Amino acid sequence: MARTAGHTGAHDAAGTIPIEVAAKLLMVTPEWVRRLTKDGWIAKSDRGRYRVVDVVQGYIRFLKDEARRSTKTASHNRLQDIRTRKEELAVAQTERELVPLVEAMTLVDEVAGAVVARINAIPARLTRNIEQREQLQREVDDALTEVADRIAKLRRSYRSGDEDPAPEEEGID
After folding, report:
1. Alpha-carbon distance 77 to 157, whole Å?
2. 3-state helix, strand, coil in the chain (%, to 5)
3. Which sequence spans correspond to the domains of the chain?
4. What percentage of the chain exceeds 90 in pLDDT?
5. What is the dihedral of CA 140, 146, 150, 152, to 10 degrees?
6. In 3D, which of 1, 65, 77 has the Cα closest to residue 36?
7. Distance CA 135, CA 21 (A)
8. How far apart are alpha carbons 158 and 150 in whole angstroms?
Protein backbone atom coordinates (compact mmCIF):
# COMPACT_ATOMS: atom_id res chain seq x y z
CA MET A 1 0.00 0.00 0.00
CA ALA A 2 1.44 3.35 -1.02
CA ARG A 3 1.74 6.17 1.42
CA THR A 4 -0.03 9.40 0.61
CA ALA A 5 1.53 12.79 1.11
CA GLY A 6 1.23 14.01 4.69
CA HIS A 7 0.82 10.54 6.20
CA THR A 8 2.67 10.43 9.51
CA GLY A 9 2.42 6.79 10.34
CA ALA A 10 0.13 7.53 13.30
CA HIS A 11 -2.19 4.70 12.39
CA ASP A 12 0.44 2.03 11.79
CA ALA A 13 0.75 -1.33 13.55
CA ALA A 14 -2.61 -2.96 12.83
CA GLY A 15 -4.94 -0.02 13.50
CA THR A 16 -3.22 1.28 16.62
CA ILE A 17 -2.61 4.88 17.56
CA PRO A 18 0.05 6.50 19.79
CA ILE A 19 -0.85 7.86 23.21
CA GLU A 20 -0.86 11.47 21.97
CA VAL A 21 -3.56 10.68 19.39
CA ALA A 22 -5.57 8.71 21.99
CA ALA A 23 -5.40 11.70 24.31
CA LYS A 24 -6.59 14.07 21.57
CA LEU A 25 -9.39 11.67 20.68
CA LEU A 26 -10.62 11.68 24.29
CA MET A 27 -9.80 15.38 24.84
CA VAL A 28 -7.58 14.55 27.80
CA THR A 29 -3.84 14.63 28.46
CA PRO A 30 -1.49 11.75 27.64
CA GLU A 31 -0.92 11.42 31.40
CA TRP A 32 -4.65 10.86 31.89
CA VAL A 33 -4.59 8.12 29.25
CA ARG A 34 -1.65 6.52 31.09
CA ARG A 35 -3.63 6.68 34.32
CA LEU A 36 -6.69 5.08 32.70
CA THR A 37 -4.41 2.38 31.30
CA LYS A 38 -2.76 1.77 34.66
CA ASP A 39 -6.19 1.53 36.34
CA GLY A 40 -7.30 -1.05 33.77
CA TRP A 41 -9.86 1.00 31.87
CA ILE A 42 -7.92 1.09 28.58
CA ALA A 43 -5.92 -1.82 27.19
CA LYS A 44 -2.48 -1.00 25.73
CA SER A 45 -1.60 -2.81 22.51
CA ASP A 46 2.19 -2.59 22.61
CA ARG A 47 4.90 -0.01 23.26
CA GLY A 48 2.72 3.02 23.96
CA ARG A 49 0.22 2.26 21.22
CA TYR A 50 -3.51 1.68 21.57
CA ARG A 51 -6.31 0.28 19.45
CA VAL A 52 -8.92 2.97 18.80
CA VAL A 53 -11.78 0.70 19.85
CA ASP A 54 -10.03 -0.10 23.16
CA VAL A 55 -9.48 3.60 23.84
CA VAL A 56 -13.06 4.64 23.11
CA GLN A 57 -14.76 1.70 24.85
CA GLY A 58 -12.45 1.90 27.86
CA TYR A 59 -13.12 5.61 28.27
CA ILE A 60 -16.88 5.07 27.96
CA ARG A 61 -16.74 2.33 30.63
CA PHE A 62 -14.76 4.70 32.86
CA LEU A 63 -17.28 7.55 32.38
CA LYS A 64 -20.26 5.27 33.05
CA ASP A 65 -18.61 4.00 36.20
CA GLU A 66 -17.85 7.56 37.34
CA ALA A 67 -21.47 8.59 36.69
CA ARG A 68 -22.72 5.57 38.65
CA ARG A 69 -20.38 6.34 41.53
CA SER A 70 -21.39 10.01 41.52
CA THR A 71 -25.07 9.10 41.60
CA LYS A 72 -24.49 6.56 44.34
CA THR A 73 -22.43 9.08 46.35
CA ALA A 74 -25.06 11.81 45.92
CA SER A 75 -27.80 9.40 47.00
CA HIS A 76 -25.74 8.28 49.99
CA ASN A 77 -25.10 11.92 50.95
CA ARG A 78 -28.83 12.77 50.76
CA LEU A 79 -29.65 9.75 52.91
CA GLN A 80 -26.95 10.74 55.40
CA ASP A 81 -28.34 14.31 55.50
CA ILE A 82 -31.83 12.94 56.25
CA ARG A 83 -30.48 10.72 59.04
CA THR A 84 -28.52 13.64 60.50
CA ARG A 85 -31.63 15.86 60.40
CA LYS A 86 -33.71 13.16 62.12
CA GLU A 87 -31.10 12.85 64.86
CA GLU A 88 -30.98 16.65 65.31
CA LEU A 89 -34.77 16.77 65.63
CA ALA A 90 -34.74 13.88 68.14
CA VAL A 91 -32.16 15.72 70.26
CA ALA A 92 -34.15 18.97 70.03
CA GLN A 93 -37.29 17.14 71.15
CA THR A 94 -35.46 15.43 74.02
CA GLU A 95 -34.07 18.79 75.16
CA ARG A 96 -37.60 20.24 74.88
CA GLU A 97 -36.50 22.73 72.21
CA LEU A 98 -38.96 21.08 69.85
CA VAL A 99 -42.50 20.42 71.05
CA PRO A 100 -45.01 18.37 69.05
CA LEU A 101 -47.86 20.48 67.69
CA VAL A 102 -50.45 18.46 69.66
CA GLU A 103 -48.67 19.28 72.93
CA ALA A 104 -48.38 22.97 72.04
CA MET A 105 -52.07 23.16 71.13
CA THR A 106 -53.07 21.39 74.33
CA LEU A 107 -51.06 23.96 76.29
CA VAL A 108 -52.76 26.83 74.44
CA ASP A 109 -56.20 25.28 75.11
CA GLU A 110 -55.49 24.87 78.83
CA VAL A 111 -54.16 28.42 79.22
CA ALA A 112 -57.01 29.86 77.17
CA GLY A 113 -59.54 27.96 79.28
CA ALA A 114 -58.07 29.36 82.49
CA VAL A 115 -58.04 32.90 81.05
CA VAL A 116 -61.67 32.61 79.90
CA ALA A 117 -62.82 31.44 83.34
CA ARG A 118 -61.03 34.33 85.09
CA ILE A 119 -62.21 36.98 82.65
CA ASN A 120 -65.82 35.77 82.69
CA ALA A 121 -65.87 36.28 86.47
CA ILE A 122 -64.92 39.97 86.22
CA PRO A 123 -68.36 41.49 85.50
CA ALA A 124 -69.97 39.77 88.50
CA ARG A 125 -67.08 40.86 90.76
CA LEU A 126 -67.25 44.49 89.60
CA THR A 127 -70.91 45.27 90.02
CA ARG A 128 -74.23 43.99 91.28
CA ASN A 129 -76.06 46.22 88.83
CA ILE A 130 -77.55 43.80 86.28
CA GLU A 131 -77.48 46.29 83.37
CA GLN A 132 -73.81 47.17 83.96
CA ARG A 133 -72.92 43.50 84.46
CA GLU A 134 -74.62 42.55 81.15
CA GLN A 135 -72.85 45.40 79.34
CA LEU A 136 -69.48 44.31 80.76
CA GLN A 137 -70.24 40.68 79.90
CA ARG A 138 -70.99 41.63 76.26
CA GLU A 139 -67.61 43.40 76.05
CA VAL A 140 -65.87 40.42 77.65
CA ASP A 141 -67.64 38.01 75.28
CA ASP A 142 -66.65 40.11 72.24
CA ALA A 143 -63.00 40.16 73.35
CA LEU A 144 -62.98 36.42 74.06
CA THR A 145 -64.57 35.71 70.66
CA GLU A 146 -61.80 37.68 68.91
CA VAL A 147 -59.15 35.76 70.86
CA ALA A 148 -60.83 32.42 70.10
CA ASP A 149 -60.99 33.29 66.39
CA ARG A 150 -57.29 34.18 66.41
CA ILE A 151 -56.40 30.90 68.14
CA ALA A 152 -58.48 28.95 65.60
CA LYS A 153 -56.74 30.68 62.65
CA LEU A 154 -53.32 30.02 64.16
CA ARG A 155 -54.23 26.38 64.78
CA ARG A 156 -55.27 25.95 61.12
CA SER A 157 -52.15 27.76 59.96
CA TYR A 158 -49.79 25.61 62.04
CA ARG A 159 -51.48 22.36 61.01
CA SER A 160 -51.48 23.20 57.30
CA GLY A 161 -48.06 24.85 57.23
CA ASP A 162 -49.55 27.97 55.62
CA GLU A 163 -48.33 31.39 56.53
CA ASP A 164 -49.62 32.83 59.80
CA PRO A 165 -52.19 35.59 59.23
CA ALA A 166 -50.91 38.77 60.86
CA PRO A 167 -52.85 40.02 63.92
CA GLU A 168 -53.33 43.48 62.39
CA GLU A 169 -55.15 41.89 59.43
CA GLU A 170 -57.70 40.45 61.85
CA GLY A 171 -58.46 43.64 63.71
CA ILE A 172 -56.73 42.63 66.98
CA ASP A 173 -55.14 45.66 68.59
Report:
1. 33
2. 70, 5, 25
3. 12-86, 99-170
4. 36
5. 80
6. 65
7. 98
8. 12
Fill in the amino acid letter for 54. Answer: D
pLDDT (mean) for 15-26: 93
Taking only the tens place, the pLDDT of each residue in 95-154 is 888 888 888 888 888 888 888 889 888 888 888 999 999 999 999 999 989 988 888 888
The answer for residues whose C-beta is within 8 angstroms of residue 93's C-beta and 6 or more apart is: 99, 100
158 pLDDT exceeds 60? yes
- Supply the DSSP string of 37-85, one letter for each residue: HHTTSS---BTTEEEHHHHHHHHHHHHHHHHHHHHHHHHHHHHHHHHHH
